[in-house]
Write a structure and sequence with these properties.
With about 220 residues, this protein is of the alpha/beta class. The chain is built from 11 helices and 6 strands. α1 crosses α4.
């Protein structure tokens, strides 16, 4: 794919704006030890981008005798405790990128499978005002079907009053990239803990290691 006319940028949150996927990974390891779970890192990566209820539904279907709710509550409590204490670091290049977008007339949206309270806490802990960063926000509670379904991105684009094809979606998860593709958006994968496969390399407009590369691309400094 090639980048075409862009008027809007839709941001995923965990792993794109905040270094929070690393916190989720730590929580996953701790929960696996506590519950002697059957899950491995590949399982965790397959859940990334999905909302909490969808994750639980999948695990209950696959492992009906496993204490899924207790397991997931432990993980969520672990993550909230870390965020309450230290917050998750802002990913390199985010503030420079968002400043450029606002200064150059791009519309911006947050579209995350997180619940509103956790998202609000993460931005608050780092002194970031969402109302100044984004023209609109969309959370898991507003959609009926989780990623890789494109509903959350389609709602964000509707709020921006832009067609999907005029929006870049910044995602770190495979489910998120697939959702962007299904919705007709211009997907850009920002690599975090999950490596892109050949599928993402074929479907994404481009793949970057950090948000600074997105900024340079929009400025025309890279090809």
């Amino acid at each position: 794919m090639k980048l075409s006319k862009v008027k809007g940028i839709i941001f995923d949150m965990d792993g794109v704006i905040f270094d929070s996927e690393a916190v989720w990974q730590r929580a996953f390891v701790a929960a696996n030890e506590k519950f002697n779970s059957p899950f491995i890192e590949a399982d965790r990566q397959s859940w990334c981008g999905m909302d909490e209820q969808s994750i639980r539904n999948r695990l209950k279907e696959q492992y009906p005798s496993f204490p899924v709710d207790e397991y997931r509550e432990y993980i969520i409590s672990f993550v909230f405790n870390v965020i309450h204490t230290d917050g998750a670091d802002v990913k390199a290049g985010f503030e420079e990128l968002i400043s450029y977008l606002k200064a150059h007339g791009y519309k911006t949206a947050l579209a995350t499978s997180a619940k509103t309270d956790r998202a609000a806490l993460q931005f608050e802990k780092k002194g970031l005002e969402r109302a100044k960063l984004f023209d609109c926000e969309t959370y898991s509670g507003e959609v009926k079907v989780s990623k890789p379904n494109p509903e959350i991105f389609l709602k964000a684009a509707q709020k921006l009053n832009l067609p999907p094809q005029e929006c870049i979606v910044l995602e770190d998860s495979l489910n998120g990239v697939e959702a962007a593709v299904r919705g007709g958006f211009q997907p850009v994968m920002v690599i975090d803990l999950i490596a892109p496969t050949e599928k993402e390399r074929n479907e994404c407009v481009f793949i970057v290691d950090n948000l600074g590369e997105v900024l340079r691309f929009l400025k025309g400094e890279t090809k």
